[in-house]
């Protein structure tokens, strides 16, 4: 990874919103009232007395001006990356090599949203996203143990009979740490300052010290109370400025540094990180080394349209009565819940205070994961996920719900289950090539792969005629095959996928013919027409053809891709009942195996 540090930068001043894959880019700046009352944090500031309410914060503050995050397909020639970036006058300023993500700089005054939209049209990339700015989302003998209601609630003292977290390092990605705090100093190990690109991890805000205390405050030292994993080590990684504002890019680089320096658990107490493809890729990198990432659900108090994913464990907040905290965000991305109201923790300068927010429910779960890994070092990341969810105390609606996930974490049950788990994975991944599926190809060919496993796929290798061409270690697995230097003729493509146990699955072979193809595909039919009036549920149908083969059809409504199909037809059931009245644009984009594209746009009305 380049050691160039592109931080800090200015935030965008726009309020436009955009969705990209699983990421909900609900973009808004902090309101003046929030700035006045919220101490500049996305999570509530610690208070000496139980707080009546916690200020609610939007998941995103905006995005970095003049910057994008771009992930090229594995195997894409460097010249092709530069060529694609020239379309938006961009350049790669930083390459996060283990994640194969480029921090792309745009010219002064560039429209980041438009540039991202333009680059997403190029199938040379796995994903392109704005670099979103996020805000921070708080039996032993210690004298203030009685203030720590969350510890007996999650049955931590029972868990301590088997494990205290020793032998496990928990990385706290935050504003730094007061490393000389008397109730933390014994557990601190060296970290890194990603934001300033140096080793100074002193806490510039206070939030990181609050979070660290919840996770791993020392025990039996006649000071304060105890953290959930009081025997674990704390690795401070600063990702934010003095206002506790971080970016998806600093979060991802923090995970990468933690993974390469021995951390098995990473805690990120920040709003909105679950929706980033770049952060998810970084989490996959850590999982490939046997670690897990736990993040805060956020403090908006409302529904967040972030898709669930298997890379991160996202934690909502509950109170002393196992009731969801009113400030806690919710949605399909929530995996678990944990105490997050009025938790006793450490403060900068050697003090203690009570804190509320999902910033503090997240380290409760992170520390529980540390207890589990301390009890059984052979646990795979998927084992940690499964056990935490299976042993949680069910709250709210029976079974999973979007407010509590699978339930409130139970440290004692999780540790007991971890001790009894014997890791033995003999099942190979299932893998196939989704595109191309045959026919003639030319130029730089995008190769889309579908891969799944009972535990998790850690790597995919792409072969042409039995020769390894490229390796992708991060989902979604996707490749680029440069045929421009190949002789015309028939080629056999295949992919091998591996899991953490070394089990290997091989895809069925796909035979293609390399040759020149400059003919664009044809849109044969499109069920929407210019000026059409919409009502109720509208079935949108598209069919397309090509002189060789149609690779992909995508449907874009008001700038958001809502459906894709690999092949010559697409159907999408569009519920227009909630559409705003007025004009809406619908675009069909058809791509063939050679990368030729045909689009058609219509304007319809509600």
Describe, in plain words, how this protein is organized in 3D.
The two termini are 49 Å apart. Residues 1-53 have low confidence and may be disordered. This protein folds into 4 domains: 18-134, Peptidase S8 propeptide/proteinase inhibitor I9 (Alpha-Beta Plaits); 135-420, Rossmann fold (3-Layer(aba) Sandwich), CATH 3.40.50; 430-514, Immunoglobulin-like (Sandwich); 522-605, Immunoglobulin-like. It is globular, with a radius of gyration of 25 Å. Helix 9 runs parallel beside helix 11 and helix 10 (381-391) crosses helix 11 (411-420). The protein is an alpha+beta fold. The strands form 8 sheets. It has a 7-stranded parallel β-sheet, sandwiched between helices. Strands 18, 20, 21, 23, 24 and 25 form a 6-stranded mixed β-sheet that branches. One of its GO terms (molecular function) is serine-type endopeptidase activity. It comes from Thiobacillus denitrificans (strain ATCC 25259 / T1). Pfam families: Big_7 (PF17957), Fervidolysin_NPro-like (PF22148), Peptidase_S8 (PF00082). One of its GO terms (biological process) is proteolysis.
């Amino acid at each position: 990874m380049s050691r160039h540090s592109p931080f800090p930068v200015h935030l965008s001043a726009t309020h436009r919103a955009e969705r990209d894959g699983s990421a909900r880019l609900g973009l808004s700046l902090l309101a003046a009232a929030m700035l006045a009352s919220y101490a500049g944090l996305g999570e509530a500031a610690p208070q000496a007395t139980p707080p009546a309410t916690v200020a609610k914060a939007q998941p995103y503050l905006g995005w970095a001006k003049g910057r994008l995050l771009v992930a090229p397909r594995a195997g894409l020639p460097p010249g092709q990356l530069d060529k694609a970036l020239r379309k938006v006058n961009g350049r790669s300023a930083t390459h996060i090599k283990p994640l194969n993500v480029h921090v792309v700089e745009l010219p002064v005054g560039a429209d980041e949203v438009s540039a991202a939209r333009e680059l997403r049209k190029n199938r040379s990339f796995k994903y392109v996203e704005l670099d979103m700015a996020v805000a921070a989302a708080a039996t032993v003998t210690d004298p203030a143990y009685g203030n720590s209601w969350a510890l007996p609630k999650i049955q931590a003292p029972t868990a301590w009979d088997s494990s205290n977290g020793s032998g496990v390092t928990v990385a706290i990605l935050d504003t730094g740490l007061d490393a000389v705090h008397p109730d933390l100093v014994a557990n601190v190990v060296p970290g890194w300052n990603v934001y300033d690109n140096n080793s100074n991890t002193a806490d510039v805000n206070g939030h990181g010290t609050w979070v660290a205390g919840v996770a791993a405050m020392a025990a039996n030292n006649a000071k304060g109370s105890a953290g959930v994993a009081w025997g674990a080590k704390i690795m401070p990684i600063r990702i934010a400025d003095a206002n506790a504002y971080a970016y998806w890019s600093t979060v991802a680089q923090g995970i990468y540094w933690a993974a390469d320096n021995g951390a098995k658990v990473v805690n990120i107490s920040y709003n909105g990180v679950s929706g980033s493809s770049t952060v998810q890729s970084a989490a996959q990198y850590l999982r490939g080394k046997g670690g897990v990432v736990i993040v805060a659900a956020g403090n908006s108090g409302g529904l967040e349209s972030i898709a669930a994913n298997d890379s991160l464990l996202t934690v909502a907040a509950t109170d002393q009565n196992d009731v969801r905290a009113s400030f806690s965000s919710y949605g399909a991305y929530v995996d678990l819940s944990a105490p997050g109201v009025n938790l006793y923790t450490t403060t900068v300068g050697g003090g203690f205070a009570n804190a509320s927010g999902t910033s503090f429910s997240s380290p409760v779960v992170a520390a529980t994961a540390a207890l589990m890994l301390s009890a059984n070092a052979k646990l795979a990341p998927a084992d940690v996920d499964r056990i935490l969810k299976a042993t949680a105390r069910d709250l709210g609606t029976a079974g999973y719900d979007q407010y509590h996930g699978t339930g409130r974490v139970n440290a004692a049950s999780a540790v007991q289950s971890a001790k009894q788990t014997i890791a033995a994975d003999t099942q190979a991944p299932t893998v196939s090539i989704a595109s191309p599926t045959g026919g003639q190809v030319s130029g730089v060919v995008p190769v889309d792969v579908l891969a799944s496993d009972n535990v998790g796929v850690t790597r995919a290798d792409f072969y042409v005629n039995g020769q390894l061409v490229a390796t992708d270690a991060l989902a979604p697995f996707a490749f680029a095959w440069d045929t421009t230097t190949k002789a015309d003729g028939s080629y056999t493509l295949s992919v091998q996928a591996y899991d953490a146990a070394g089990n290997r699955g091989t895809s069925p072979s796909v035979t293609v013919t390399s040759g020149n193809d400059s003919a664009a595909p044809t849109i044969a039919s499109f069920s929407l027409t210019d000026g059409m009036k919409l009502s109720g549920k509208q079935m949108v149908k598209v069919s397309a053809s090509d002189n060789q083969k149609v690779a992909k059809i995508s449907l874009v409504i008001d700038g958001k891709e809502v459906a894709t199909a690999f092949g010559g037809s697409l159907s999408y059931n569009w519920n227009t009942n909630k559409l705003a009245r007025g004009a809406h644009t619908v675009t069909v984009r058809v791509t063939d195996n050679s990368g030729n594209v045909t689009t058609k746009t219509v304007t319809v009305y509600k």
